[in-house]
Specification:
3 domains; 551 residues; 22 helices; TIM Barrel; six-stranded parallel sheet; six-stranded mixed sheet; Rossmann fold; alpha/beta
Length: 551
């Protein structure tokens, strides 16, 4: 009798490299992001809800690798995987690949499992593999199956199929496998969860969620004490925007589906009461899509009087904000959110299909100054195809002139199967930064520079980094008097991640001086002097950007 697939190992792949894990400084090891594998919590709950004989275990290689690194132990993904395979003896392994940054580790683990466990069922899922599965030479050949898009329905169907309990599977693509009875059993359809409140509560206990905070941070770390137990939640699936560079629509489909305020509070109560969580980061892509829903959630939180803060690290749309909404958000514990601004030029915003104009920006941005209890990070993209120097400069001016607490600048790196990515494949841009007719479509490599020419990219990177130093450090509005403690917190975090960051130490010396913290002033000045004296790179940066070291 054929053995049932019942023991399932879910592997969350690291978003850090082995070089980072095995070689980076002691100071930085506690400032890596440690997002719990929320997708696996949903999948575990869905499988357990439908398949009563299932036994599920999560191997979060990301957090386990960080733990080893913090103990100064050598991180070896294959050894860690093998140990788990021997102790658990699964019938099936599912590998999560949410981002391109984790694809290398996923391939490493997947190929190891395929070689050493030839009869094991291996599947991969997540945003990144959903985007690349249609590519030639996509590097997914270690899989029996790829599960695309949202998997709460697709994954249980696959398990039932493998156990010959169904002959219909949606949202699953066979790769290299002998486990398909008939090709027609696998359809091209996907099952969208229209009413997300019907989903089971995520299986938060499948990992040691209450202790993740001991090993790293979330995106709102600037506003939360480092000893605060943290977790993530998702209350919205999808996004109303159609940004050309974003993969949300490819993964979640068109439209937006929201959890009710009652369901949101039910999950918060579980995290708060059962697991001792005191900060929640909502990983939604369109949290404020319904103003009334957000206000109702805020009112419920205020009524509960929890000792709880929350943030929206993925970002919200500036155009959805108003006085009343921001007041409710701050009153209910919101400490931080990011805003997808991307460009300071109307033509570029239109090209990106952003739901934003300079008119909206000028109307809404002053609200941030008024509601300063919340920390605001503005996200910008530089090097977008066909962007002119003048347009890029308008983006830097936008970053400089409005009341953001911090600006995050990212070079344009198209994600697989997004509108921008596919336009580049079809050579629809004239921009010489991106490869044109000299490259055939099949040579377009998502794992390298997404078609960008190295020399041109380097120029944009250097300009962007200099502007980052100028805007976030030299001209930092909080450091100039608006919110000095907040500025100090930012710069202290930078020095934890990069101990030799001379601009950060110089800014700390300025901030400490304003706060009359004389011992810290002396230390920061000495660090600045030591770095500058030993680094022509930083001497050059101070000189070029006319930022005088205060030592």
């Amino acid at each position: 009798m054929k053995k049932k697939v019942s023991k399932i190992l879910l592997i969350n792949t690291p978003r850090l490299t082995l070089k980072q894990l095995n070689e980076y400084s002691e100071r930085s090891k506690y400032y890596w992001e440690v997002y719990p594998p929320l997708g696996f919590m949903y999948i575990s709950a869905a499988v357990k809800n439908e398949i009563d004989y299932s036994e599920i275990k999560v191997l979060d290689l990301h957090i386990e690798s960080i733990k080893k690194s913090q103990k100064n132990q050598t991180v070896d993904w294959l050894e860690m995987t093998e140990d788990c395979m021997k102790s658990f003896e699964p019938d099936m392994v599912a590998i999560s690949v949410m981002f391109g940054a984790s694809f290398e580790s996923a391939q490493c683990v997947g190929k190891f499992l395929r070689k050493n466990y030839p009869d094991l069922v291996i599947a991969s899922g997540g945003v990144h593999v959903t985007g690349i599965v249609k590519e030639k030479n996509n590097g997914l050949e270690f899989n029996d199956f790829v599960i695309i898009k949202e998997s709460e329905k697709h994954f249980p169907q696959l398990i039932k199929y493998l156990n010959e309990e169904t002959d219909l599977v949606n949202g699953v693509i066979p790769i290299k496998t002998n486990k398909v009875r008939k090709d027609e059993h696998f359809t091209k359809d996907t099952d969208t969860i229209e009413h997300v409140d019907e989903l089971p509560i995520p299986d938060y206990g499948i990992v040691d969620i209450k202790n993740y905070y001991k090993h790293g941070i979330l995106s709102a770390a600037q506003t939360v004490a480092y000893d605060t137990p943290l977790a993530t939640m998702q209350t919205v699936r999808g996004c109303t925007a159609r940004c050309t560079f974003c993969s949300v629509r490819n993964f979640n489909g068109f439209g937006v589906r929201t959890h009710s305020p009652e369901r949101v509070l039910k999950e918060i109560e579980i995290l708060y009461d059962k697991f001792g969580i005191r900060h929640i980061d909502f990983v939604d892509d369109d949290f404020t899509v319904s103003r009334s829903r957000v206000i109702e959630i805020c009112k419920m939180l205020i009524e509960k009087k929890y000792n709880l803060t929350w943030s929206i690290g993925n970002g919200i749309r500036l155009g959805t904000l108003d006085d009343e909404l921001l007041t409710y958000m701050a009153d209910s514990g919101c400490t931080y959110f990011s805003l997808g601004i991307e460009s300071g030029d109307d033509k570029m915003l239109k090209e990106m299909k952003k739901p934003l104009t300079l008119k909206i920006l000028n109307q809404k941005a002053p609200l941030l100054e008024k509601h300063s209890r919340i920390y605001y990070r503005a996200n910008f993209i530089t090097g977008y195809p066909d962007e002119t120097p003048e347009q890029l400069n308008r983006t830097f001016e936008c970053a400089k002139n409005f009341s953001w607490d911090w600006c995050l600048f990212s070079l344009c790196k198209p994600l697989p199967d997004t509108e921008l990515y596919n336009k580049l494949l079809e050579n629809k841009f004239e921009d010489t930064k991106f490869s044109g007719g000299k490259k055939k479509n099949e040579a377009y490599n998502f794992q390298e520079h997404a078609g960008i020419v190295a020399d041109e990219e380097r120029k944009i990177f250097e300009l962007t980094y200099d502007k980052n130093l100028e805007i976030n450090f030299k001209l930092n509005k909080n450091l100039q008097g608006r919110h000095i403690k907040r500025a100090i917190s930012d710069f202290e975090r930078v020095t934890k991640l990069s101990e030799s960051h001379a601009f950060a130490w110089n800014c700390l010396a300025i901030g400490y001086e304003k706060m009359q913290l004389q011992e810290k002033v002396k230390f920061a000045k000495n660090k600045t002097k030591e770095i500058v004296n030993n680094s022509s790179y930083w001497r050059n940066k101070f000189e070029r950007l006319e930022f005088k070291p205060i030592y």
